[in-house]
Amino acid sequence: MKLSAQDESVISQVWGKDLSLVEIWKSYQRTHLQETVPWHQAIDEYLEHLASNSTPRGYVNSMRWVLKEMGRCMGIRLPVCAHTTQKVQSILDRFENADHKRSRLSSFYNWAFKKRYLCEPVLLDTERRRSSDHQIGTLSNTEVSALLQSCSDELIGYLWLSLGLGLRVAEANRVQELECRDGCLIVGAGASKTRTRRIIDLLPGHVPYWDSVRPVRYVRGQMARLRSKAGIFI
Fold this sequence. Notes:
- The structure is a single chain.
- The protein contains ten helices and three strands; from the N terminus they run H-H-H-H-H-H-H-H-H-E-E-E-H.
- A hairpin with a 2-residue loop joins strand 1 and strand 2.
- It is elongated.
């Protein structure tokens, strides 16, 4: 974009006549929005931006879900430039899994500010709030039984992978990278956090669960509802 002579003259008067053209252009960028971009358009552009940078599909899908949820709460007709730190934070505080969503939203709003879709950056606290004495909870046999009894057919395979075998969220949900063979579960390098293949020995009673393994949509929210239904609050 090229500045008109009038724009250059006005900015020079405000910021000083000794500014170079580069400095004038940077000042212009800081003080002018590129355009008033609708929320749905910004989402599509950002997801396309992520995909073009070879971002993992699971991350892109998670980002799409978080952004659409924010759009529903803020109002999809509200343009991106109307999103402020105060408005976003007030909605974010009511979300389940707020820490996870805060990280996703921060990435999006940083991108939107660099694109000049926002007048000011949306500054969200990206630190996870943890108490110093927090410890990882463990489930009793009674609680495990309650989870199994409350679990839907869709989640039972995921529950087996995560609870029974200790797979991480991303690993358990990338079923295309998993294989059950010769009494073992093979976690492909594409799913493993370390990017190396892992082999897990299965107990005889575990093998039938493999037939129930399938991808789970919105797994975090579904697991939160399952824990609540089973009366587990850790």
